């Protein structure tokens, strides 16, 4: 992980996506954020209109969420992710990843 280098263009593209997704997530109800599987076409339209984003961008956000959910399950679910988060907060990863 220490040698993980992302091209600057890819990093900038992801930063832009994060900003777009933040607007879309801010337009979701708390229930939708907790249960994104309930988001249907009508809700996508409402979220897109409320966030000033396109329906395509909202669908892309939902697609990314599903992919992250699958990766989380492959990594052992929430328990292992919480352990990883705890380790990161404790500083055990300092120096292993750039910017940390």
Task: Write up this protein.
The protein has one domain: Signal recognition particle, SRP54 subunit, M-domain (434 Repressor (Amino-terminal Domain)), CATH 1.10.260.30. It is 69% helix and 0% strand. Helix 1 (8-26) packs across helix 3 (41-51) and helix 3 (41-51) crosses helix 4 (55-74). The protein has helices at 8-26, 30-34, 41-51, 55-74, 77-90. With 100 residues, the protein is an all-alpha fold. The model has no long low-confidence stretch (mean pLDDT 78). The protein contains 5 helices and no strands. It is globular and about 40 Å long.
End-to-end gap: 12 Å
Supply the number of helical segments: 5
Parts with pLDDT < 50 across at least 5 consecutive residues:
none
Using the coordinates above, name the CATH class: Mainly Alpha
The count of domains is 1
Strand count, sense and barrel status of the largest sheet are: none
Beta-strand residue fraction: under 5%
* Strand runs, count: 0
The share of residues in helices is 55-70%
CATH superfamily: Signal recognition particle, SRP54 subunit, M-domain
Remind me, CATH topology? 434 Repressor (Amino-terminal Domain)
- SS class: mainly alpha
User: Please, what is the average pLDDT?
Assistant: 78
CA radius of gyration: 16 Å
Helix-strand layout with pairing:
Elements: H1 8-26, H2 30-34, H3 41-51, H4 55-74, H5 77-90
Helix pairs in contact: 1-3, 3-4
Protein traits:
100 residues, 69% helix, single chain, 5 helices
Describe, in short, the structure shown.
The chain has 100 residues and is mostly helical. The protein has five helices and no strands.
């Amino acid at each position: 992980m220490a040698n993980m280098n992302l091209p600057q263009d890819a990093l900038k593209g992801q930063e832009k996506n994060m900003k777009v997704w933040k607007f879309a997530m801010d337009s979701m109800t708390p229930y939708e954020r907790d249960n994104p599987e309930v988001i249907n076409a009508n809700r996508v339209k409402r979220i897109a209109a409320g966030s000033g984003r396109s329906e395509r961008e909202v669908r892309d956000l939902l697609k990314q969420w599903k992919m992250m959910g699958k990766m989380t399950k492959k990594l052992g679910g929430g328990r292992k992710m919480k352990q990883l988060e705890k380790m990161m907060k404790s500083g055990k990863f300092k120096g292993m990843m750039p910017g940390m």
